[in-house]
Amino acid sequence: MDSSLIRAFITMILIFVSLLFSVFLLTVKTKNKLSNRLMAFYFIIFAMHISVFAYAKYINVPYALDMLRDQIMLLAVPILFLYVVSCIYSDFKLQPKHALHFIPFILEVILYTPNFYLVSEEEKAQFYLDKYANPEPNISLVYGIIISIFYIVLMFRELRKYKLLLLENYSQTNNYNYKWLFQLVLVTTIVFGFATLKSIYKLYDPQPNGLDIIRVIMTLVLLVFLCWIVLKSLYNPELFRGIDTRHQLVKNIINSNGTEKTEQLDESIKALKSYMVNEEPFLDPTLGIKDLSEGLNMQPKDLSVLINHKIGKHFFDFINEYRIEKAMEILKNPTQKSLTILEILYEVGFNSKSSFNTAFKKHTGKTPTNYRKTS
Which secondary-structure segment (H or E) carries 16? Predict the structure, then answer.
C-alpha cells in the first residue's frame, strides 16, 4: 500500500480522536474548566496542524491558509505551558499579560509576510515549489526549535517548583497531579525530539521516499501519544487537583522575613513536637501545613520556615516520620498482630501502599513485613 495512504488513514484517526476529545473537554461538567479548555484548544491546534497529511494529495488549499496551518503550531507549546500552570495552581486565571504568549506565532507570520503573504498567488506557488531554497524555512526551523526548548524548560522549572511546594506544604503528594504533569511534559519533549529530527531531515534531504517513511512513523508516534493522553485523562477524572498560588517556597519567605531569636525558635520547636506527640494530627491523611498551623495557632508561613528551614526537613518528610514511628509501635505490639500492613498504613495516615513502603524503608532500612518479623 502507498505510504501516503497509510499516513492519510492514520491522520484521519488522529484528527477524529483529537476533535472528539476536544468536544468532551469543552462540554464535560468539571471544576477544572480553564485547564480543560486549554487542553481542548491544544488538541484543536494539533488536529489543524497535522491535517495536511490527510488532504495534501486530494484537496487544494489556498497557500496562505496552508502556511498558517503550519505556523499555528507555534501556539501549541505556549498553550501547553499555560495548561500545565493552570493544573498546578487551582486559582490560576488567564490575564491580559498571557497574551504575550501569542508573540512567537506573530513573529513567525511577520517573518513570512514580505516574501509570501504580500505577494501574488503565482509567487506563493513558486515559493512552495522552491520552499527550501528560501531563507525563511531555515530561519523558521531554528526559531521553532528555540521556542519549543524555551517553553519545555519553563514547564520543567514550574514542575520543579511545584514538587518543592508539595514537599514543603503537604503530607501526601500522591493526591496531586505532579506525576501526570511530569509524564505529559516528558512525553511531549520526546515527541518534539522526533518532530525536530523529521524537520531537519526534510530540510536537508527532501526526497519523497525516505520522507514518507519518516512521516508514517511520526504519525504513529503521535497516535500513541494522543491515545495515552486520552486514556490517562479518562481513567483519572480526579487527576487535576492543584495548589493555591499563594504558597511560597521557604527560601522566598526567609528572604522577606527577619530572623527569630534562638530562644523563641527553641520554644516553637518544642511546642510543635509536643503537639505532634500529644494530638497526633499526622493521622489525618490530608494534613497540610495550613491545617497544622491552625492547630498550633501559628501563621502557615512561620510554621513552614520552622519545619522546612529551622528543623531542616521537608514538611512531607517531617509528618511521615511521625506516621512511621506510629506504624512501628503498632508493628511491635503483639496485641495488634492481627492487623494487616494495609490496615496499619491507613490507620497511621498514609493512603498509598507504595508511599508507605518507601517511607518506611527510608526511615528504618527495612520493609514493614521484615520489621514486624524481627521486632
Answer: helix 3-27
